[in-house]
Specification:
This protein has 187 residues and is α+β, with helices and mostly antiparallel strands. 49% of the residues lie in helices and 17% in strands. It contains 6 helices and 4 strands; from the N terminus they run H-H-H-E-E-H-H-E-E-H. The protein has a 4-stranded antiparallel β-sheet, with helices on one face. A hairpin with a 3-residue loop joins strand 1 and strand 2. Helix 5 runs antiparallel to helix 6. The longest helix is centred in the last third of the chain and has 27 residues. The protein is globular.
Length: 187
Amino acid sequence: MHSAYLVCHQMVAITEVWMTQRTSRKFCTGACSEYFRSMYSKQEVSKLKENFWTAFGRYMKPVLSADGEPISWLNYKTGIPGVFFKMDADSRHASISIVITQSDPRFYNQFVHNKAFLETTLDESWQWTANATDEYGKTMSTISTQLEGVNVLNSGDWPEIISFFKPRIIALDEFWSMAKYSFEGLL
């Protein structure tokens, strides 16, 4: 957590300088998420999110995969088409999920078959949603969890968001290092 704090503290300083140069507005938390969206342009929101993901990437860079190899935690490659590990943060919450866009139901069923192992590795239960439709009309299944009440636009929330993501993406990698072979057999 100390390393996350240092990286976030550096990014907070950069963000504060950037914000001071632009305007004297101060960050707020909690119920102000609507205010954040209305007070920042799309470019400003994009820059703040980019700053967060850069900080998270720097923090995770020295962490090796379960197989002992360097890995891109932000762009985690499962090696299975239609199976993704996704992290997202916005002005209301942070979430991490396994997204299955494979049309073949065997892929989601394989996760169901491995549910006990997944939840043991994660050390928590996640929400399972089969055959949902996204905003573009595409069918997908998800296995996810989220942290409510954090705002990626508020750099003061970054340590909490990083502390939420880190153990879960590492646990997903540990699970995947053992379970991926059963998914490869479905290709």
